């Protein structure tokens, strides 16, 4: 069994292409002096709230042996059932991602694609409360957003894909393809079709019912990440998911995820579903 990886090491950025610019960019994004200055400024002037009209969210979740999970942040513990813990990859397209204060002008902002890879935690002092997301990997398809997030955020440290396709067909089927090239973005290939109904008996039994399961996997108000320099960062989010809008999917075809397959996960066994759209806000961020 492979030992849990170091989230601080996996947060380090590597550009997908090997050239002079690729060798310079990580030094700029990881510049210690800028990081110290940004953190000092953010204590006086918090980051502005960000908003996005997210659409075409596809959740895919698996049970993973908890021994593969990295150490949780202080004051938190993993959600564990029969020695396993949930792991989710959700991919989606933003809808004009930018400062909430921009109002109607936010319509001028681009709409990048993103994929979040995450574990689930409980707070030690609130074990029955809303679960907390622990980011394992984050991927985006536009360099401006990757660089901007890394330059101005500790909790969101995305990697740039060399190819990112998140496609939903008219019949509800589709696929997600992420290629990292020579960079640090993880690879992924998922395909799915619309399912006739929910097939989540094992999952539901672990969470006390179907609706409790869906609420656990989708309704969070906080995400934690490990920074490149070894700090824990927390971001507060607002994600009002309507459970009645979720639609079951069936994973099929060619499925590849070296990250999960190295942990012994059988990809066809994943639980998948689709959320057509949801408003999303990044409310605040702080170091723990």
Summary, kept brief:
The chain has helices at 7-10, 20-29, 32-44, 143-152, 201-207, 210-218, 258-261; strands at residues 50-65, 76-78, 84-93, 98-99, 113-123, 132-140, 159-160, 163-168, 174-179, 188-194, 222-226, 232-238, 247-251, 271-287. The protein has 288 residues and is of the alpha+beta class. The longest helix is centred in the N-terminal third of the chain and has 13 residues, at 32-44.
Produce the secondary structure layout.
Elements: H1 7-10, H2 20-29, H3 32-44, E1 50-65, E2 76-78, E3 84-93, E4 98-99, E5 113-123, E6 132-140, H4 143-152, E7 159-160, E8 163-168, E9 174-179, E10 188-194, H5 201-207, H6 210-218, E11 222-226, E12 232-238, E13 247-251, H7 258-261, E14 271-287
Parallel strand pairs: 6-7, 6-11
Antiparallel strand pairs: 1-3, 1-4, 1-14, 2-5, 3-5, 5-6, 8-9, 9-10, 10-13, 11-12, 12-14, 13-14
Helix pairs in contact: 5-6
The domain tally reads 1
**Percent range for β-strand residues:** 35-45%
Strand order of the largest sheet: 1-3-5-6-11-12-14
Helix content: 10-25%
Structural class: alpha+beta
Proper CATH architecture: Beta Barrel
Q: What can you see in these coordinates?
A:
This protein has 288 residues and is α+β, with helices and mostly antiparallel strands. The protein has a single domain, classed as Acetoacetate decarboxylase-like (Beta Barrel), CATH 2.40.400. Helix content is 20%, strand content 37%. A seven-stranded mixed beta barrel has the order 1-3-5-6-11-12-14. A hairpin with an 8-residue loop joins strand 9 (174-179) and strand 10 (188-194). Helix 5 (201-207) crosses helix 6 (210-218). It is globular, with a radius of gyration of 18 Å. The two termini are 31 Å apart. The mean pLDDT is 93.
């Amino acid at each position: 069994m492979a030992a849990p990886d170091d989230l601080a090491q996996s947060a380090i950025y590597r550009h997908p292409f090997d050239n002079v610019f690729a060798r310079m960019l990580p030094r700029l994004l990881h510049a210690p002096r800028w990081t110290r200055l940004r953190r000092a400024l953010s204590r006086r002037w918090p980051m502005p709230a960000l908003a996005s009209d997210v659409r075409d969210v596809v959740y895919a979740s698996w049970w993973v042996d908890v021994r593969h999970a990295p150490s949780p942040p202080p004051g938190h513990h993993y959600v564990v059932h029969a020695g396993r813990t949930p792991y989710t990859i959700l991919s989606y397209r933003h809808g004009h991602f930018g400062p909430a204060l921009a109002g109607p002008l936010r319509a001028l902002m681009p709409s990048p694609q993103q994929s979040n890879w995450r574990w689930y935690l409980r707070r030690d002092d609130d074990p029955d409360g809303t679960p907390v997301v622990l980011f394992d990997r984050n991927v985006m398809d536009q360099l401006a957003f990757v660089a901007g997030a890394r330059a101005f955020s500790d909790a969101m440290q995305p990697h740039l894909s060399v190819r990112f396709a998140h496609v939903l067909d008219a019949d509800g089927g589709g696929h997600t393809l992420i290629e990292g090239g020579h960079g640090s973005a993880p690879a992924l290939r998922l395909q799915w079709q619309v399912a006739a109904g929910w097939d989540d008996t094992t999952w539901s039994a672990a969470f006390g019912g179907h609706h409790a399961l869906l609420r656990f996997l989708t309704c969070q108000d906080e995400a934690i990440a490990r920074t490149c320099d070894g700090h824990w960062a927390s971001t507060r989010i607002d994600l009002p998911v309507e459970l009645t809008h979720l639609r079951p999917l069936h994973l099929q075809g060619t499925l590849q995820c070296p990250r999960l397959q190295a942990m012994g996960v059988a990809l066809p066994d994943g639980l998948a579903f689709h959320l057509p759209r949801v408003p999303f806000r990044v409310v605040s961020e702080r170091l723990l």
